[in-house]
Structure formats: C-alpha cells, structure tokens
Specification:
Elements: E1 2-9, H1 16-28, E2 33-40, H2 47-57, E3 61-66, H3 72-82, E4 87-90, H4 102-110, E5 115-123, H5 128-144, E6 153-160, H6 161-167, H7 177-184, E7 188-195, H8 207-221, H9 224-252, H10 260-292, E8 300-304
Parallel strand pairs: 1-2, 1-4, 2-3, 5-7
Antiparallel strand pairs: 3-8, 4-6, 5-6
Helix pairs in contact: 5-8, 9-10
C-alpha cells in the first residue's frame, strides 16, 4: 500500500534536519511504500535548499516550490493535489505533530477508517491564552455550524483516497481544510497524543493570523452571523419604534426635557451596530468576489522529484 506524507513548509530550516531524522526512522519501521511531499510555501530562510539536498539523496522525496507565500491551508491543498497514495497524511514540520503517531493512524485506516484525525490531550509550549482561545473558537464554530468539527484537532490527519478525491472537487479560495474534511463525511475516528513544543523557530500563527483563521472558519461553515445581523436589525427597529411612540406621547402631554445625552447614546449605539452588520455583510460579499475571479489557488515555480 502506498502512503503519501504531506508537509507544508514555511521558513522551517531549523526544524528540517530533526524532522528528517525522525521521519526516516518512522518510515523505516513501517512496511509501506512511502512518498514524502514537501510544499515550500515561499520560504526565505534556505528551507528549499535543504529540501533539495534531501530530495537529491532520497528518491521518495518530492518537492513543490510556490512562486510566493500563499498560506498554510493552500500549501496543504497543493500537497494533497499531487499525492497519489492510498492514504494521505498531513502534518506540520515543527514536530509538534509527532511522526511516531503515523503507525497508529495507518492501523486505524486498515481497520476501515477514511479519516483518522489527531486530538491533542495536552498542548505543551503554548500560552494559556492560546489554549483558551482555541477551545472557545471550536465551541463557537460547532454551535454555529451544522458541520461538527472535533475539539482540539489541527490539520494532522490521515485521509483515504476517496476523501482526497472529494476534497479535490472543492476549490474555494478561503480554505479551512479541517472543516472541509469534516464536511466530506465518511468513516472518521480520533487518535490521541500529547503535543510537544516546537523543536525550533517561531510559530507561523501570531494573534492576527489566528483571528483571521478563526473568522475564515466561521464564515466558511456558517451563515449564522448574517442571521444575527438580520435579527439585530429587527429588534432595534422595534425598539426604535416603541421609543418614538413614547417620545411623541410625552411631547403631547407636555413633558419635555433636554435629550442631548440620550440622543448621542442612541446615535452612537445604532451607528456602531450598523457598521458591525455592514462589516459582516462585507466579509461574505468579499468572499463572493474572490470566488468569482476563478484564480488558481497557487502557482508552482519549481518541482523536484516528480519526473
């Protein structure tokens, strides 16, 4: 059976030697035909040179190099696109996803599972804020979305050939791969592990990217924010109508009073809510504009090992 390992790479030169040592040890211990696909997502730290040297020494290694940085989720997509294994396993290069879990994933696959996703029991080396924010994000997303996504999971997972074939038909620009895999369905099960700190380097998901990634996940799998905006508009319109009736009634009964403070509060409150709802609408409209352009998800500038 052929197994494809997919690694999205962005400025991971410090991690690659350690990753290669651990991956080759795991691959040597398993009786499968492996291919190792590295997707260089526009690295500027020499990662591509290290990977090219590895590919020259090992024919199992295949390498894609993007023309620029297209993003982590796009790099995963590109690796899945070119993988030809019966099973495809995606994992990050920082070794927070332990390669030693691959054997357990493949055992589940041989038992009939189409997706085997890795669930983090413990997350070492991460701040309390990141742990709490990730937990809150998944709970909110599952509350809003009709597609349940397991808590404490990342993109570290095994997928069968029919899952990969289904994903290949889904070409949306703003990608949330773990949600897309859940949406596809088929037989899915977890394996559990304790996540280690990064071997080297810095996280590629600072706070700004974490927020962007969370919003992308919510907008990809839920229209609840749009419904909230509509309901908020109805409620405020009703409240405004009642307030108008009260003000007119007070005016005709002779009760007048200065209203600058209440007027400013009402204007600022309604203005802020209007801007918020317009922003929600703009987020969804912007996604429609990007999808309508039909641009390719990524551009490959160089390949190694595919010939």
């Amino acid at each position: 059976m052929r197994v494809s390992l997919v690694f999205p790479i962005f400025n991971e030169s410090a991690c690659l030697p350690v990753l290669w040592d651990r991956i080759t040890a795991v691959v040597a211990s398993l009786a499968y035909d492996f291919e190792l696909i590295f997707v260089d997502d526009g690295s500027t730290d020499g990662s591509f040179d290290i990977l090219s040297a590895i590919a020259a020494a090992d024919t199992r290694v295949k390498l894609l190099r993007f023309s620029r940085n297209f993003g982590h989720q796009i790099a995963i997509t590109a690796g899945i696109d070119v993988a030809d294994g019966d099973a495809v396993i995606v994992m990050d290069a920082d070794l927070q996803d332990p390669p030693e879990l691959i054997g357990e994933m493949l055992a589940k696959f041989e038992d009939g599972m189409d997706v085997v996703y890795a669930v983090r029991r413990d997350r070492q080396g991460e701040t309390l804020f990141k742990k709490l924010s990730a937990n809150v994000f998944y709970k909110i997303l599952n509350w809003m979305s009709s597609t349940p996504i397991p808590l404490d999971t990342g993109d570290f997972r095994l997928m069968s050939r029919r899952v990969v074939a289904a994903l290949s038909t889904m070409r949306e620009q703003d990608r949330f791969v773990r949600g897309m895999v859940s949406w596809v369905g088929f037989n899915q099960c977890p394996v559990y592990f304790d996540r280690d700190p990064r071997v080297a380097g810095q996280t590629k998901y600072p706070f700004r990217k974490m927020v962007q990634f969370a919003l992308n996940g919510i907008m990809s799998f839920s229209t609840v924010p749009l419904r909230w905006a509509s309901w908020l508009g109805f409620v405020l319109s009703g409240a405004a109508g009642i307030y108008i009736i009260v003000v007119v009634g007070l005016r005709f009964t002779g009760h007048t009073f200065p209203g600058y403070a209440s007027l400013m509060i009402a204007v600022l409150l309604l203005g802020g809510i209007q801007l918020m709802t317009v922003g929600i609408l703009g987020g969804y409209v912007g996604r429609l504009v990007m999808e309508s352009k039909k641009r390719p998800l990524y551009i490959v500038s160089e390949t190694v090992g595919f010939e």
